[in-house]
């Protein structure tokens, strides 16, 4: 039998490649004759670079400015002239010093530095995976790293962060890196929120980044001003991007990508599946195993396991899910395309212990799955005797 392992990360416990390796070890222990291929996936957020590197891209390290100004070690991936940038590695919540949230001052400058580094490598097709950001600066930091200037009424350069945009009076895009004119951008995001309003970047995602109600109101006002000045600088491109699906992604970084970089938004998992070539690898497979830390209602709306199950259905391959826990009932999981679902909580009810011992528990689940495949194979052989 040929089995493809295509899980997403178990957030807070294991990366997607680690999940795949633990499952593979268990499967081989339970069924030594299996042919196993590891193809970790992601939905455009954390783990996207890991997923494409596992599929043949080259990882490129880069030291960039973190969300609050400190130097962080980030990376991106390249293959030919295509670059994949994972915003979380440069400007994400996970790289905040000691996890200290900074809702007004956090910046996306480091993400812009990664884009510049990709251009230095001659890349002309750039994928921006924008999940997990720490900022609500409308992508202004990213644009600043690429040559755009932001000034107040006194002609002073603005400090970083979405809060400072309340003082912006001039945005000058004439210094934008000219190499961007020869590059195409894909915004990999499942978020379809606009930049402003009750469903916008500040209102919906600001609290996740530490914003109080007062902060949210300030950020909303700042982003509105940012939009008005950007419209003066760019014209219709800035206006058209305001309510475009994905404009509110990553604290408004989606807006900057759409308005200034002329990015095209696509669902993150669709982009990752295309880059990894999963659909082609599924041909002739007997089973695909996917999953993530929590299979819940959010999973059903375009998260990585749903993308994998959809590809499996198209290829006529049975899909099985693994997860830390699930809040979905059996019928919902079956309707989502999963023939079976295995949760770590089936083996250990305490979720804290599950997160701590996720690797060992996944190995055990893999072993149980392998043993089940052996039994199923024996039963099928006996039925033909």
UniProtKB/TrEMBL annotation:
SUPFAM superfamilies reported in the protein's UniProt record: Glycerate kinase I (SSF110738)
Keyword Iron attached: no
Catalytic EC class: transferase
EC number: 2.7.1.31
MF GO annotations: glycerate kinase activity
Matching InterPro entries: Glyc_kinase_flavodox-like_fold, Glycerate_kinase, Glycerate_kinase_RE-like, Glycerate_kinase_sf
Keyword line: Kinase, Transferase
Similarity remark: Belongs to the glycerate kinase type-1 family.
Protein name listed in UniProt: Glycerate kinase
Organism: Arthrobacter stackebrandtii
């Amino acid at each position: 039998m040929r089995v493809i392992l295509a899980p997403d990360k178990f957030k807070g416990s294991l990366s997607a490649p680690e999940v795949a390796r633990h499952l593979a070890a268990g499967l081989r222990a339970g069924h030594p004759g299996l042919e196993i291929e590891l193809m970790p996936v992601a939905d455009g957020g954390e783990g996207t670079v890991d997923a494409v590197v596992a599929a043949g891209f080259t990882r490129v390290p880069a030291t960039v400015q973190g969300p609050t100004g400190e130097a962080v070690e980030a990376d991106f991936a390249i293959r030919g002239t295509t670059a994949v940038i994972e915003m979380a590695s440069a400007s994400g919540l996970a790289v905040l010093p000691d996890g200290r949230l900074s809702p007004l001052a956090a910046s996306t400058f480091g993400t812009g530095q990664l884009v510049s580094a990709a251009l230095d490598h001659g890349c002309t097709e750039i994928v921006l995976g924008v999940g997990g950001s720490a900022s609500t600066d409308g992508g202004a930091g990213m644009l600043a790293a690429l040559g755009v200037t932001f000034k107040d009424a006194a002609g002073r350069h603005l400090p970083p962060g979405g809060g400072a945009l309340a003082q912006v009076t001039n945005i000058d895009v004439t210094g934008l890196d000219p190499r961007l004119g020869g590059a195409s951008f894909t915004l990999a995001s499942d978020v379809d929120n606009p930049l402003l309003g009750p469903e916008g970047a500040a209102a919906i995602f600001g609290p996740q980044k530490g914003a109080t109600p007062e902060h949210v109101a300030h950020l909303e006002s700042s982003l509105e001003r940012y939009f008005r000045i950007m419209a003066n600088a760019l014209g219709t491109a800035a206006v058209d991007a305001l309510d475009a699906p994905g404009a509110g992604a990553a604290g408004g970084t989606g807006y900057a990508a759409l308005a200034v970089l002329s990015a095209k938004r696509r669902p993150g998992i669709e982009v990752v599946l295309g880059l990894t070539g999963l659909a082609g690898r599924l041909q002739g497979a007997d089973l695909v195993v996917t999953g993530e830390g929590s299979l819940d209602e959010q999973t059903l709306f375009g998260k990585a396991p749903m993308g994998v199950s959809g590809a499996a259905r198209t290829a006529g391959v049975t899909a099985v899910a693994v997860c830390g826990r699930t809040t979905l009932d059996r019928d919902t999981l079956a309707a989502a395309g999963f023939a079976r679902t295995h949760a770590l909580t089936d083996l250990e009810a305490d979720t804290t212990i599950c997160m701590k011992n996720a690797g060992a528990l996944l190995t055990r689940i893999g072993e149980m799955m392998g043993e089940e495949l052996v039994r199923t194979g024996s039963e099928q052989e006996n039925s033909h005797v």
